[in-house]
Design brief:
It is a single chain. By secondary structure, the chain is mostly helical. Helix content is 47%, strand content 5%. Strand 3, helix 4 and strand 4 form a beta-alpha-beta unit.
């Protein structure tokens, strides 16, 4: 929306991005951000422009650019995370105090995070009620076409060190590059996003409601990282998905994302505190060995380990398996959900500061609309139900690939392979321990 507004002004446009070390995402998302910058720069160059990349404190860099260019207008798409909101508010106020036009625009959500409220003006705590209210709202505006008549401004000389030269944005891992799996699976950018959406709608949308829980099938959209970085908008997804039908289950997932952002808007510390304060008294265990085995996919529970290895290799994990591994950490190992939230924040390419903490609190039973803590996912039953032939497990835990469909879900009951660990904890004992801890609070 910001770029479309710039087109309307009919002034030369300078497209910029500021890499601010104080507000960078986790390691996997930084890899994606590097690719996103390169992709957008390539798209702008095809139109005769460029994306100018700067490094430093956002406010200081922006003011220096304005001083040297004489710009009288600054436009950007609105941010809703706590750090982004604070920075945007400060900058907007300062620019306007200097007589510079400063406007931010919607675009990252279907509805602004303050728009859908209860009749009394409060925040919805139950998703079904939020979703009902959201469906009653007018449909999202049709996506606007890309701007066609942009005139690009030239960048004047800037101080040494402010402009990133040679495409070295400082976002990729050093000295060891561990991103091979990410590179093999993902291609950041708008073109790849729309190709992914078209493929999903043609091949998987009709069966999404019944197939989405089976990680051995390629049945989900995998659009989350593209949404996270703005390569595609929820309005574009909504329009494409509803052109011929109304896929309720899929659209509800898009609505769940809006629900998360509406919640973060009123609880900006959602990643750090229990939304249900009674869990402040929960006797979480300090278990560095168990946490390390969970992170590495060495818990001895095949479905859990498959999910954690998929995450480490690709920066993504199937949604059903995300729930299983989260439940395992919190309830089988009795480890504080915040350890899991931080690990996902660092390893997910689609991490966003709203969905990640809300989903973790949902799994832990500590948040709004959360699964009750006493509902403990059995990773063996989940494995047998949703990966009955072990397709997903064999893909990510190859040391178990020789086992039968029946034995692969609980290999310790058969002849445990030498190169696969025994269970880090017994399921029955872990369940009793978790319920005892819950009853204490």
């Amino acid at each position: 929306m910001a770029l479309l507004e710039a087109e309307k002004l009919r002034k030369p446009v300078l497209c910029i991005v500021i890499v601010d070390d104080a507000h960078l995402p986790g390691a996997a998302a930084r890899w994606w951000l590097d690719g996103a910058i390169r992709s957008l720069d390539g798209a702008l160059r095809k139109r005769g422009g460029a994306l100018h990349v700067f490094r430093g404190a956002t406010r200081d860099v922006l003011m220096e650019i304005i001083r040297r260019t004489g710009a009288d207008t600054v436009l950007w798409n609105r941010r809703y995370d706590p750090g982004g909101r604070e920075t945007d508010t400060v900058i907007k106020s300062e620019l306007r105090s200097q007589g510079i036009m400063a406007h931010s625009f919607a675009g990252a959500l279907l509805h602004e995070p303050w728009a859908i409220r209860t009749r009394s003006g409060g925040q919805y705590k139950i998703f079904t009620a939020f979703w009902r209210a959201m469906k009653a709202c007018p449909a999202p505006f049709p996506p606007a076409p890309a701007p066609e008549k942009l005139t690009f401004a030239s960048l004047p000389p800037m101080p040494d060190g402010l402009v990133v030269q040679g495409g070295e944005y400082g976002l990729l891992p050093t000295p060891h590059d561990w991103t091979g799996g990410l590179q093999a699976m993902w291609e950041p950018g708008e073109e790849a996003a729309h190709s992914q959406l078209a493929d999903f709608i043609e091949n998987d949308l009709d069966t999404y409601a019944t197939a989405r829980d089976f990680p051995g099938h390629e049945a989900t959209s995998r659009l989350s990282p593209f949404l996270r970085f703005g390569h595609i908008t929820p309005a574009q997804i909504w329009q494409a998905a509803t052109e011929q039908t109304y896929p309720e289950q899929f659209l509800a997932e898009v609505g769940w994302r809006d629900f998360a952002w509406s919640l973060l808007f009123v609880t900006p510390d959602m990643a750090n505190r229990n939304l249900r304060p009674e869990f402040d008294a929960m006797p979480w265990r300090d278990d560095p060995v168990g946490l390390a085995r969970w992170r590495k996919g060495q818990t001895g529970y095949p479905l859990v380990d498959a999910g954690m290895r998929e995450l480490w290799h690709t920066g993504w994990m199937h949604n059903r398996v995300r729930m299983v591994v989260a439940s395992f950490l919190v309830k089988h190992l009795l480890i504080d959900w915040r350890h899991g939230e931080r690990w996902f924040a660092d390893t997910l390419v689609d991490h966003d500061p709203a969905s990640n903490p809300m989903n973790w609190q949902w799994s832990a039973g500590t948040g709004v609309d959360a699964a009750p803590y006493f509902r403990i996912m059995n990773p063996i039953l989940q494995s047998r139900k949703f990966d009955p032939h072990g397709v997903y497990i064999r893909r990510w835990v190859p040391e178990l690939s020789h086992l039968s469909d029946d034995a692969i879900h609980a290999p310790w009951e058969a002849a445990l392979p030498r190169d696969y660990p025994p269970p880090v904890v017994d399921h029955r004992l872990a369940r009793e321990r978790a319920l005892s801890a819950w009853k204490m609070i």
